[in-house]
């Protein structure tokens, strides 16, 4: 006899996501001396944060993990609560159903399906950008508007799409002649989009983008990510 990490047998690729969630939950939250297959139905949110952070760093293969603000956004998402404080969430527990059963409000997918899509996109297309801290990523559209509304025209930041699985979008400020500001979100880029043309080159192409929030010229922030062939064609 030998103990192993949990395994799940699947018969079709569309079960892969659910299988990964089952393995992650079992591996992270089961007790060593347990009745076989018994895992807690609810776990402290802080333990979930640690698990998501370890999973993110291992999957993306980066030393740059999730930050305090990222956990706050993820808590708002999984608990569907935008009125609680960061401290309030620390005392809560999260259930298996909230993690991988219940569909997020107004969406067609669960929290884990969304988070796993972010993992896959970052691993395949955004590792270097994330490791250079060029992507805020885990931030709500509403909070982005609050951050950018007082910034100069052309200020932008990058966030993971709320509405699509595995998408990254660019939010940027457009300031009118009367001084009023508007924050626009560019249609999210998928892994397929970024395999055709990289994120750095897409940012370089978009003339309306000038400074990465809070105030870093985009060529300074993303210059090392530009394709040298395109730079040479200028």
From TrEMBL:
<dbReference type="InterPro" id="IPR000980">
    <property type="entry name" value="SH2"/>
</dbReference>
<comment type="similarity">
    <text>Belongs to the transcription factor STAT family.</text>
</comment>
<keyword id="KW-0238">DNA-binding</keyword>
<feature type="domain" description="SH2">
    <location>
        <begin position="114"/>
        <end position="213"/>
    </location>
</feature>
<keyword id="KW-0010">Activator</keyword>
<dbReference type="Pfam" id="PF21354">
    <property type="entry name" value="STAT_linker"/>
</dbReference>
<keyword id="KW-0727">SH2 domain</keyword>
<keyword id="KW-0539">Nucleus</keyword>
<dbReference type="GO" id="GO:0005634">
    <property type="term" value="C:nucleus"/>
</dbReference>
<dbReference type="GO" id="GO:0007166">
    <property type="term" value="P:cell surface receptor signaling pathway"/>
</dbReference>
<protein>
    <submittedName>
        <fullName>STAT6 protein</fullName>
    </submittedName>
</protein>
<dbReference type="InterPro" id="IPR048988">
    <property type="entry name" value="STAT_linker"/>
</dbReference>
<dbReference type="GO" id="GO:0005737">
    <property type="term" value="C:cytoplasm"/>
</dbReference>
<keyword id="KW-0804">Transcription</keyword>
<keyword id="KW-0805">Transcription regulation</keyword>
<keyword id="KW-0963">Cytoplasm</keyword>
<dbReference type="Pfam" id="PF00017">
    <property type="entry name" value="SH2"/>
</dbReference>
<dbReference type="InterPro" id="IPR001217">
    <property type="entry name" value="STAT"/>
</dbReference>
<dbReference type="GO" id="GO:0003677">
    <property type="term" value="F:DNA binding"/>
</dbReference>
<dbReference type="InterPro" id="IPR008967">
    <property type="entry name" value="p53-like_TF_DNA-bd_sf"/>
</dbReference>
<dbReference type="GO" id="GO:0003700">
    <property type="term" value="F:DNA-binding transcription factor activity"/>
</dbReference>
<dbReference type="InterPro" id="IPR036860">
    <property type="entry name" value="SH2_dom_sf"/>
</dbReference>
<keyword id="KW-0597">Phosphoprotein</keyword>
């Amino acid at each position: 006899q030998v103990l192993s990490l949990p395994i799940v047998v699947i018969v079709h690729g569309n079960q892969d996501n659910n299988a990964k969630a089952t393995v992650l939950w079992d591996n992270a939250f089961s007790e060593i001396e347990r009745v076989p297959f018994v895992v807690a139905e609810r776990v402290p949110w802080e333990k979930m944060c640690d698990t998501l952070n370890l999973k993110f760093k291992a999957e993306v293969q980066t030393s740059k993990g999730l930050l305090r603000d990222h956990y706050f956004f993820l808590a708002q998402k999984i608990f569907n609560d935008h009125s609680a404080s960061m401290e309030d969430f620390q005392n809560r527990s999260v259930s298996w159903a909230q993690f991988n059963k219940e569909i997020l409000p107004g969406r067609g997918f669960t929290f884990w399906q969304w988070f796993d899509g972010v993992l896959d996109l970052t691993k395949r297309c955004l590792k270097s950008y994330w490791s250079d801290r060029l992507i805020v990523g885990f931030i709500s559209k509403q909070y982005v508007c609050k951050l950018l509304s007082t910034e100069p025209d052309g200020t932008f930041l990058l966030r993971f799409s709320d509405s699509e699985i595995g998408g990254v979008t660019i939010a940027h400020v457009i300031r009118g002649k009367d001084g009023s500001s508007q924050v626009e979100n560019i249609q999210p880029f998928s892994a397929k989009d970024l395999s055709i043309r990289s994120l750095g080159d897409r940012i370089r192409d978009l003339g309306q983008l000038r400074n990465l929030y809070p105030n870093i010229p985009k060529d300074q922030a993303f210059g090392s990510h530009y394709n040298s062939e395109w730079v040479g064609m200028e």
